[in-house]
């Protein structure tokens, strides 16, 4: 950085605005021009021609130095005032000492004073009107009072050195040059201001465009967040619905009762208007299967409705053949009508869903609604299809096993009775041995009867053996179903946290997903209260609401912030359901939790939950 640049940057500070720094630089430049073009040259001229007045241009040098010192000391406005008024004041003072009363002011000095009177308009602008008015007014007073001030100083100096000759020409040229320089600098400052204004306009337009783009991006992000929240809400809704159905399947073993409870729950929870549930039945083992309506909810009589439907007959039978969902949005007026106390009307949407597991259909689920079901509700029905198929299949196997056991017990009782009868016959045979010779005919008849009984016994044993083979086959099927249930449990362990607790909240069961997420071992959690997962940020009112809800036999659902063993935080969407006994009272509690991976979404859902509970 050269000397000129260093002088120009005296007092410049990054803490100041660009406008203030530009004014500081300008005052430094004006001071430098005053020094180089006026103060120093006039000091030499004064020493040569009027040594008694040399102190005045030396004061100009002091004023320049003072300007830089004040700028360096952060007294920037005082420095600019000195820079604006000192040139005219010192020139006027030099003129008053040099010119006697009655003499004309030398043209060169008049030109210098006229030029210096413009300096305030160079170092200040209209935004600093108080400083500008003060400096300009001071210069104006000095300029108009020169004539009247000549009477007070009558030194009688010779002013010919500045009114004629070489110095006159040089000073005249310098004064004109200063005038042009000041006008040029004012024009240049105005030009820079226009450029700055244009740049500000362009920057403003650019910022406006960036703000508009940012607003669009923010709207897009908000829309993505809204969609994500909606998807999260729908997944939680599906999870809760599946939990309710699973709870029903654990409570009821009878397919008839289970069908009624399930169809009622599905129609109410999905917001539909009516529904029916068909199960696959067979008259005999080798006969053709058919679909029998086991339960219906708010079911109006459909045209030619049948409680038993053959395979391939109607939409129900067709769904069985195709093994795929049927989704109708254009329903014939005479197909089915939804009735209420205010009248009846055809539905807008019919969903027929196969209940299938391992490519085997166990039944058909039919749902009708005034409104077209949303995608997440259809997804809920799809997931229910497989879950219900497994449940009804297990119910059938359990029922068949129970029936076979009862039949086996009956046959065992018959065999025991026949064995006792045979024993009695043998005793009678021994008692009548002495009479056998006399009663050969009677003995032969008895032997024939005995042979016949033995043949019946052999047949019964063969039937019992066949039944045992059938029971073994049924046991293999049960083992296969158990393997499938274990596979589903493994899938559940990968995606969902599951735990069970007794009536006091003590943990009695945990799945692998909870072990991986909470970072406790199974032994560390079993027998411990759920409070080991509690995070300090969770209000106690939320847990009080949770216990009040599940102890009353209802399902609790909420966003919970938990703490793992290592202190890390994980968020879950928790659904906690009581398992009720025959009297409808809780006997234990089952918790299903879905881990929320995105902390911002979890925090927002948690804050909304607190607002609903009046805790925030």
Write up this protein:
The two termini are 60 Å apart. The protein has helices at residues 3-8, 18-49, 55-72, 76-98, 107-116, 119-123, 129-144, 146-149, 160-163, 165-251, 255-270, 314-322, 375-431, 433-436, 440-495, 512-518, 522-525, 540-551, 599-612, and strands spanning 274-281, 290-297, 308-310, 326-328, 338-340, 343-345, 349-357, 360-369, 497-501, 507-510, 556-563, 569-580, 586-596. It is built from 19 helices and 13 strands. It has a six-stranded antiparallel β-sheet. With 616 residues, the chain is of the alpha+beta class. The chain is rod-shaped, with a radius of gyration of 53 Å. It comes from Marivirga arenosa. The chain crosses the membrane at residues 29-48, 54-70, 77-99, 105-124, 131-153, 165-189. This is PAS domain-containing protein.
Layout of strands and helices, then pairs:
Blueprint: H1 3-8, H2 18-49, H3 55-72, H4 76-98, H5 107-116, H6 119-123, H7 129-144, H8 146-149, H9 160-163, H10 165-251, H11 255-270, E1 274-281, E2 290-297, E3 308-310, H12 314-322, E4 326-328, E5 338-340, E6 343-345, E7 349-357, E8 360-369, H13 375-431, H14 433-436, H15 440-495, E9 497-501, E10 507-510, H16 512-518, H17 522-525, H18 540-551, E11 556-563, E12 569-580, E13 586-596, H19 599-612
Antiparallel strand pairs: 1-2, 1-8, 2-3, 4-7, 5-6, 7-8, 9-10, 9-13, 11-12, 12-13
């Amino acid at each position: 950085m050269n000397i000129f640049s260093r002088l120009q940057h005296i007092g410049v500070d990054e803490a100041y605005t660009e406008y203030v720094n530009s004014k500081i630089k300008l005052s430094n430049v004006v001071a430098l021009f005053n020094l180089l073009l006026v103060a120093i040259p006039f000091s030499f001229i004064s020493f040569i021609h009027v040594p008694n007045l040399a102190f005045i241009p030396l004061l100009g040098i002091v004023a320049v130095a003072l300007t830089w010192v004040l700028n360096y000391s952060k007294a920037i406005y005082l420095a600019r005032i000195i820079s604006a008024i000192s040139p005219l004041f010192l020139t006027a003072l030099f003129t008053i000492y040099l010119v006697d009363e009655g003499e004309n002011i030398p043209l060169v000095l008049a030109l210098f004073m006229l030029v210096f009177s413009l300096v305030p308009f160079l170092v200040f602008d209209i935004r600093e009107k108080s400083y500008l008015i003060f400096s300009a007014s001071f210069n104006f007073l000095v300029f108009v009072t020169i004539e009247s001030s000549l009477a007070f100083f009558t030194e009688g100096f010779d002013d010919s050195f500045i009114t004629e000759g070489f110095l006159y020409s040089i000073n005249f040229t310098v004064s004109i040059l200063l005038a042009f320089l000041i006008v040029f600098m004012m024009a240049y400052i105005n030009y820079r201001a226009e450029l700055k204004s244009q740049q500000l306009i362009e920057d403003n337009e650019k910022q406006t465009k960036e703000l508009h783009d940012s607003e669009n991006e923010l709207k897009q992000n908000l829309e993505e967040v809204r969609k994500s929240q909606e998807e999260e809400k729908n997944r939680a809704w599906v999870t809760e619905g599946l939990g309710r159905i699973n709870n029903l399947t654990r409570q009821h073993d009878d397919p008839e009762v289970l069908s009624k409870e399930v169809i009622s729950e599905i129609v109410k929870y999905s917001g539909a208007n009516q529904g029916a549930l068909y199960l696959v039945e067979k008259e005999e083992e080798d006969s053709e299967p058919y679909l029998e309506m086991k339960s219906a909810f708010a079911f109006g009589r459909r045209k030619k409705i049948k409680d038993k439907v053959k395979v391939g007959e109607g939409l129900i039978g067709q769904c069985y053949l195709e093994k795929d969902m049927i989704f109708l949005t254009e329903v014939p007026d005479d197909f089915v009508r939804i009735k209420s106390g205010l009248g009846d009307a055809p539905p807008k949407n019919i969903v027929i869903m196969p209940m299938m597991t391992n490519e085997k259909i166990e039944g058909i689920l039919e749902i009708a609604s005034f409104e077209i079901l949303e995608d997440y509700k259809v997804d809920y029905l799809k997931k229910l299809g497989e879950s219900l198929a497994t449940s009804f299949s297990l119910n059938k196997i359990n029922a068949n096993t129970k029936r076979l056991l009862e039949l086996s017990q009956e046959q065992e009782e018959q065999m025991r009775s026949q064995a006792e009868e045979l024993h009695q016959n043998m005793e009678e045979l021994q008692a009548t041995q002495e009479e056998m010779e006399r009663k050969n005919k009677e003995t032969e008849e008895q032997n024939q009867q005995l042979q016949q009984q033995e043949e019946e016994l052999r047949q019964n044993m063969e039937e019992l053996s066949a039944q045992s083979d059938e029971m073994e086959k049924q046991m293999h099927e049960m083992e296969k179903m158990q393997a499938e249930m274990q596979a589903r449990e493994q899938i559940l362990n990968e995606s969902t946290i599951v735990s069970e607790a007794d009536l006091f909240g003590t943990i009695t069961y945990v799945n692998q997903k909870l072990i991986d997420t909470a970072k406790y071992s199974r032994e560390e959690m079993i027998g411990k209260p759920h409070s080991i997962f509690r995070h300090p940020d969770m209000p106690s009112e939320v847990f009080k609401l949770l216990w009040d809800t599940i102890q009353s036999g209802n399902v609790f659902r909420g966003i919970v912030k938990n703490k793992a063993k290592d202190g890390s935080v994980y968020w879950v969407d928790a659904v906690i359901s009581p398992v009720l006994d025959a009297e409808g009272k809780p006997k234990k509690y089952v918790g299903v939790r879905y881990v929320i991976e995105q902390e911002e979404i979890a925090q927002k859902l948690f804050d909304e939950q607190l607002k609903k509970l009046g805790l925030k």
